[in-house]
Amino acid sequence: MHKIWLIIQREYLTRVRKKSFIIMTFLTPLLLAAFMVVPAWLATVSDSSDVVMVLDESGLFADKLETKKDLQFIPIQGDLESAKELYRETGNTALLYIPKMDINDPQGFKVYSKKNTNIQTKARLENMLEKEIENQRFIASGIDREQLNKMKANISITTVNLSDEGERDNNAWVTSGAGIVAAVIIYFFIFMYGVQIMRGVIEEKTNRIVEVIISSVKPFQLMMGKIVGIAAVGLTQFLLWVVLSMVVVTGVQAAFGIKPAPTPAEQMMSGRVAGEDLTEEEQAVEDNKTKAVMGTALSALSNLNIPLILGCFLFYFLGGYLLYGSLFGAVGAAVDNETDTQQFMFPITIPLVISFILSYSVVLQNPDGPVAFWLSVIPLTSPIIMMVRVPFGVPAWELLVSMGALILGFIFTTWIAARIYRVGILMYGKKVSYRELSKWLFYRV
Amino acid sequence: MSILKIDGVSKRYANHTALNNVSFVIPTGCIFGLLGPNGAGKTSLIRIITQITGADTGEILFKGNRLKPDHIREMGYLPEERGLYKKMKVGEQLLYLAQLKGLTKADATERIKGWIDRLEIRDWVGKNIEDLSKGMQQKVQFIATVLHEPALIILDEPFSGFDPINANLIKDEILRLRERGASIIFSTHRMESVEELCDNIALINRAQKVLDGSVKEIKEAYKTDTFQVIGNGKLMILNPDFQVLEQHENHGVFRASIKLLNGTQPNDLLRYLIERVEVHSFIELVPSINDIFIRKVKETHHA
Questions:
Q1: Whether the predicted interface score ipTM is above 0.90
Q2: pLDDT of B223 higher than 60
Q3: What are the residue boundaries of the ABC-2 type transporter transmembrane domain, all occurrences included (chain A) (predicted)?
Q4: DSSP string, B248-280
């Protein structure tokens, strides 16, 4: 036990002191902060950006196009050719040309610009023009815009689970979000640190230090020490990320007073398309709607069984890592250098990638279906699939079966890995086939 | 008293036999040469002794007891393929390896200090292994091998990669370790390099032991009573007790190999020569271990 502890210490300390570890650990939260702050900052900076000259031959729009914060209109007169000439001389963004037209058949809008007009500006212009044409048509047919707005309805459905345990809000978005986040973390953790185990084993093999070490400790101790040590590195990095991200984010917010840009999720919930201009009433309605959705999301969040999810997360996180980690270690032992790892990496990564893909398509659509059930019991896929399912609520027996299977699974893969490892680390200069590997399992060493 | 007794050890791999019924004894406190060409089975045997692998059949006794995992801390093994963690500092690496051998941290630190001074690598302690020259790395690895003061030190090709100065330094350290009671196994295919150092040897060829014993006895057994004589004059030997194997003459200087027959003594030959020529040099032609090995291997092939 003492020796395993020494090995764990070495694996941990040498990795944690590496420059790459320190840089990754501190850079990631900074990048995260940058992702948050930069869009918000850009939004405040881009005020002066778009100036559009308008040549309105129809006379229907010129005074109706409202100048917004970041979009300014300059009406001009004359014919198209002189307008183009005029536009060329200025540094304005674009020239909008509106020909003479019938309000019932609006055609022939054109935008001239020196650079390619960006799609967002085009969409905004179209949107504003459409609205104005609608307004004119309403007026023509005697409908009051105010009245119309009052008649508009906005609803969002709150879904409620009626299970044996009683009613509770069930916001599918929050539920699946929690699962997916957990699954993604597990997926990347297994990959990143699994490969580190493999590299570590290959390094020991190519450095030929393994013979020295093996003459003082058992191969199994060396392998487990490495796996556990690297797991500790991963957990350290993960914790530091969480803590540093929180520090950096709150720090940035306090320092600049910047409200973070709405996340795509928030935008998705409010159903708002970026760049769409809303009237004040519409804005108010949208805000209310957003608040309502956020309210149900929060209540859904508080309805999630957080301790259970966290517990499961830790279990599947470690279980999945141990299961795959030992396999990665075995791959490292079977080859001489990293370029030879491909053929053995393939069967290991396939179940991981498949479960990652299926977690989106199949499991989220039908979290209690047979595919979801079996994938969450098979140890190779369960760390990811079960994590996606847990927030939706999984019967206790299924969870126990899945956890039991995972424990048996990693005992089994560790056994296989240890057998391959003890032969492989002393085998040099030989390209190994699967048949050869299967023989190693039963070698008497 | 023997430090190691190897008794009928065999080891077979999938498609070849690495060791076939090998037995010999390594006396305590001696330098023992484990000799043989590449691929003879030396490394396989060492891996069995160091318990990296196990023998298929046969038994090994360490200080009279069956080999068991605890014995590992009484052994130090320097593998032929040297290796250290490249990104680790010299001091940390030594400390780590010593602790794996069961030394306490304080103990290990103390001994590392002593060795660092003796092998003159003080300036390198804080450097990463990858920044060291090959010879320097070898020194570090040698220290790692003997730091825990093992009773049995196993050195696989110990001098490869050393320049003559450092090779001598290591040679002296090895002799010093023997004086302090350690037994040392030298494994090498360059037999001439260890002749002068070894007290006992075992020759291995094609998985089998072909010869073992003390160097002195072996040489005694294989000596051919042949003498090389160099001198001035015309050498004409007509005595049936002396057989001339080879003779050259150049500008009045002759050089001849002469074998004693019928139980005659070297002094008889010398007396015979003095009466006839001027003798400058008279040396017994002792077969080198290499010669003995080649002879022995040829014998076993013909048999």
A1: no
A2: yes
A3: 19-418
A4: EEETTEEEEEEEE-TT--HHHHHHHHHTTSEEE
Name every chain B residue with its beta carbon within 8 A of the beta carbon of A205.
none
Highest mean pLDDT among A305-314, B129-138, B177-186: B177-186
Per CB-CB distance under 8 Å, the chain A contacts of B85 are 14, 203-204, 207, 209
Q: What CA–CA distances, in Å, run from A62 to A89, A260, B287?
A: 21, 36, 115
Whether residue B214 sits in one domain with residue B93: yes
Q: Which domain holds residue A127?
A: 50-143
Tokens of B266: 């070297």
**pLDDT for residue A263 is more than 60:** no
Residue whose structure tokens are 């300036």 = B123
What is the C-alpha R_g of chain B?
24
Enclosing domain of residue B85: 2-220
Q: What is the DSSP string of A256-297?
A: H-PPPPPPHHHHHHHTPPTT----HHHHHHHHHHHHHHHHHH
* Token digits of residue A148: 């119309």
How many structural domains does chain B have? 2
Mean pLDDT value of segment B22-26: 93
Token pair for residue A181? 């986040």
A&B contacts, CB < 8 Å = 63
- What are residue A7's phi and psi, to 5 degrees? -65, -45
The strand pairing partners of B261, in sequence order, are none
Q: What is the CATH number of the domain that holds B241?
A: 3.30.70
Of the ranges A252-266, A284-298, B240-254, which one carries the lowest mean pLDDT score? A252-266
Structural domain includes residue A154: no
